[in-house]
Specification:
alpha/beta, 13-stranded mixed β-sheet, nine-stranded parallel β-sheet, 30 strands, 15% helix
């Protein structure tokens, strides 16, 4: 590895090092601490006072800004941007954790803003925390151990996810939302700010309040995501039958929708999601996967 300090007039203060390693051009500030065994792809940038651990992999074009810590077995994909004071891959905040070699896996094109914390997984929860692609995690949001975040998810400022939470694609959680461990947030759902969520949130819906209540179909969100008027109308019809009808109990309504050959794929997904909730406990499908020795975290 050849290190060449760039000293060009006013650029002296930056104290940037250009590092050529196996033909890959990287930019690492001289105050950063990068373990020699870390795997850095081409065009990676690491800012001042950041710390990159031994078992970290950074994908092509990923930018780590100043004062960031990336620890543990953490694999970060391409073109991610991690802002100051974020901590990725730290030990889970779980009383059952005993130092097992677990991991954090992150995909491509994610934005991690200031002060975000994402913990690695635990042995009893699948051994990894998984983040998909094109997500936006605003300042001081927290993603606990063993969470699964799909693609195009938005976590606004101060959102707190407990352990084992799953957030499906294109869901949006507004500021200071708190999510109980083992909850699933359905695809394209919208969770209003300051809401406490203790049960699974159905896809395509808006939920908010104290206690949290399903208000209506997330029409504006679905329109922005390219859903047709026909698709949205089918979801709205199903919403009225499931959540606003007093004629039949929920199970009968879901079975009737499931037996309808003309039901749309979106409505079928909603029906399957709601039926899965009954397979878990306390209104949380993922409780079905809780290991026998588990304690509340």
């Amino acid at each position: 590895m050849i290190r060449k300090e760039l000293l060009r007039g006013n650029e002296k203060r930056a104290k940037v090092l250009e590092i050529y390693k196996k033909g890959n051009r990287l930019k690492i500030h001289r105050s950063a601490i990068v373990h020699p065994d870390a795997v850095l792809s081409k065009e990676v940038e690491i800012g001042p006072y950041s710390i990159i651990g031994k078992d970290v992999t950074l994908g092509e074009g990923t930018v780590i800004r100043n004062n960031v810590t990336v620890a543990g077995i953490t694999v970060i994909g391409k073109n991610n941007i991690v802002h100051p004071n974020a901590i990725l891959g730290a030990e889970p905040q779980d009383l059952k954790y005993r130092g097992e070699r677990t991991s954090l896996i992150m995909g491509d094109n994610n934005v991690v803003r200031e002060g975000v914390t994402i913990n690695k997984g635990t042995a009893g929860g699948g051994e990894k925390t998984v983040i998909g692609n094109n997500n936006f995690f605003m300042a001081y949001s927290h993603i606990a151990h063993d969470c699964i975040i799909e693609d195009n998810v938005l976590l606004a400022n101060g959102v707190l996810l407990g352990g084992h939470v799953a957030v499906e694609r294109c869901a949006k959680l507004m500021g200071l939302v708190g999510i109980q461990p083992f909850v699933t947030i359905g695809r394209y759902a919208y969770v209003g700010g300051h809401t406490r969520i203790v049960q699974d949130v159905p896809p395509y819906m808006i939920i908010e309040g104290h206690p949290a209540k399903i208000r209506q179909v997330n029409v504006i969100g679905l329109e922005r995501e390219g859903f047709s008027k026909g698709q949205i109308n089918e979801i709205k019809k199903a919403f009225r039958k499931i959540f606003r009808s007093g004629k039949l109990n929920r199970r009968n309504i879901l079975e009737a929708l499931e037996d309808n050959k003309d039901v749309s794929p979106e409505v079928m997904y909603l029906v399957t999601f709601l039926k899965n909730i009954d397979k878990g406990k306390f209104g949380r499908y993922r409780e079905a996967f809780r290991y026998p020795a588990a304690m509340a975290t």
